C-alpha cells in the first residue's frame, strides 16, 4: 500500500497527507453502533472535552470505566453540543479488522507495534495539541477532521525528554504553538495522515468523525533496556548522557552492534555488571532477530 518513495523520503522524516490511501474495502466504514460494541474489556475508554481558554489547544480528560455509560454519555454530549471525543486504547485486542488494516500498511517492524487507537468525536471536539515518540498513521474512516502539524522545534526540550521516557520531567499540559503549522489538512474518509516522531499536532472535528491511529513506537536505549527487563534502571543515573539516551534512533542507526555497544556502556558504567552474561546476549539476539 505504501510506495518505496514513501519509505525513502518520508518514513521517520517528514509528515505527509496520503490522500485516498484507503480503498473502501480497507476502510470498512465503521458505524457508531459498531464503535460502541467495541467498548468491552480490556479496552480503555477515555473522554476528552476540548477547552479553549488561556491554555489554547488543550482538553480535559477522564477515564470511563463503566462501559454501559459510554453510549448515553456520548448521546447527551451530542444533544447539549458539548465537544467530546471518545478514545479507545488497545482496540487491536477486540478487532481483527483493525489488525488487518495495520498489516495492509506492510510496514512490518512488529517489535515496534503500539496499541491501535480508535476515536469517535462530535463537531468542534479534539484532544488538544500534543506530540508523540511514534511513527503514526491517522486513518479517517467517517466524517471530517482538520489537522494542523507543527515542527518539532516548537516543543520545549523538557517536553521532548518527557515524551521520550524521562521520568524526571513530566510535562502534560501543552499550549498550541504560536508558530504557523507546517501542514494544515482536512481528512476525509479514506485519507491517511502520516506523522513522524515529535511533530506536534492537533485535530479538530468538522463533521462527526471516526478515525483510527496506527503507530510504531519510537525506540530509545531506555526502551530496549526496559524490554530486557531492567526494572531497576533509574533513568536519573544517565544524566550525563541524557540527550543521547532519550534520542529516537532511526532504523539505520539501530544496528545490532551499535545498540549492543551502548547497552554495554550503560551497564558497565552504571551497574558494573558482568556484561558478557549469556542471558543478556540471548535476549538482545531475540530483539535484533526481529529487525
Ligand atoms: Fe496524536
Question: How does the SSE layout of this entry go?
Answer:
Layout: H1 4-9, E1 16-18, H2 24-27, H3 32-37, E2 44-51, E3 58-63, H4 70-79, E4 84-89, H5 96-104, E5 117-121, E6 135-150, H6 157-163, E7 183-187, E8 192-195, E9 200-216, H7 221-227, H8 242-245, H9 256-271, H10 278-289
Bound molecules: fe (ii) ion.
Domain JmjC: 96-233
InterPro entries: JmjC_dom
Protein name: JmjC domain-containing protein
Cα distance, first to last residue?
20 Å
Q: Please state the oligomeric state of the protein chains shown.
A: single chain
What average pLDDT do the residues reach? 79
| Count of individual beta strands | 9
Structural write-up:
- It is globular and about 45 Å long.
- It contains ten helices and nine strands.
- Strands 1, 2, 3, 4, 5, 6, 7, 8 and 9 form a nine-stranded antiparallel sheet that branches.
- The chain has two domains: 4-216, Cupin (Jelly Rolls, Sandwich), CATH 2.60.120; 221-289, no CATH class.
- The two termini are 20 Å apart.
- The protein has helices at 4-9, 24-27, 32-37, 70-79, 96-104, 157-163, 221-227, 242-245, 256-271, 278-289, and strands spanning 16-18, 44-51, 58-63, 84-89, 117-121, 135-150, 183-187, 192-195, 200-216.
- The structure holds fe (ii) ion.
- The site of fe (ii) ion has 3 residues, from loops.
- Residues 96-233 form the JmjC domain.
- It comes from Spirosoma radiotolerans.
- InterPro entries: JmjC_dom.
- This is JmjC domain-containing protein.
Amino acid at each position: 500500500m505504501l510506495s518505496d518513495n514513501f519509505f525513502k523520503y518520508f518514513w521517520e522524516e517528514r509528515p505527509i497527507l496520503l490522500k485516498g490511501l484507503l480503498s473502501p474495502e480497507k476502510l470498512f466504514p465503521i458505524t457508531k453502533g459498531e464503535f460502541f460494541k467495541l467498548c468491552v474489556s480490556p479496552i480503555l475508554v477515555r473522554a476528552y472535552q476540548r477547552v479553549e481558554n488561556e491554555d489554547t489547544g488543550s482538553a480535559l480528560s477522564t477515564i470511563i470505566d463503566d462501559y454501559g455509560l459510554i453510549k448515553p454519555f456520548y448521546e447527551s454530549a451530542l444533544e447539549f453540543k458539548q465537544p467530546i471525543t471518545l478514545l479507545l486504547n488497545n482496540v487491536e485486542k477486540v478487532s481483527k479488522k483493525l489488525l488487518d488494516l495495520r498489516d495492509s500498511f506492510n510496514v512490518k517492524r512488529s517489535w515496534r507495534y503500539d496499541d491501535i487507537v480508535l476515536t469517535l468525536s462530535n463537531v468542534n471536539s479534539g484532544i488538544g495539541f500534543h506530540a508523540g515518540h511514534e511513527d503514526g498513521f491517522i486513518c479517517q474512516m467517517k466524517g471530517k477532521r482538520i489537522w494542523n502539524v507543527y515542527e518539532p522545534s516548537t516543543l520545549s526540550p523538557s517536553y521532548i525528554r518527557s515524551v521520550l521516557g524521562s521520568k524526571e520531567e513530566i510535562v502534560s499540559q501543552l499550549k498550541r504553538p504560536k508558530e504557523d503549522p507546517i501542514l494544515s489538512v482536512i481528512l476525509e474518509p479514506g485519507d491517511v495522515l502520516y506523522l513522524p516522531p515529535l511533530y506536534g499536532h492537533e485535530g479538530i472535528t468538522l463533521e462527526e468523525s471516526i478515525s483510527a491511529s496506527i503507530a510504531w513506537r519510537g525506540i530509545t536505549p531506555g526502551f530496549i533496556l526496559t524490554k530486557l527487563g531492567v526494572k531497576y534502571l533509574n533513568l536519573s543515573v544517565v544524566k550525563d548522557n541524557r540527550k543521547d539516551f532519550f534520542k529516537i534512533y532511526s532504523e539505520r542507526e539501530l544496528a545490532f552492534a551499535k545498540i549492543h555497544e551502548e547497552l554495554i556502556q550503560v551497564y558497565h558504567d552504571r551497574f558494573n555488571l558482568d556484561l558478557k552474561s549469556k542471558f543478556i546476549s540471548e535476549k538482545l539476539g531475540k530483539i535484533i532477530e526481529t529487525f
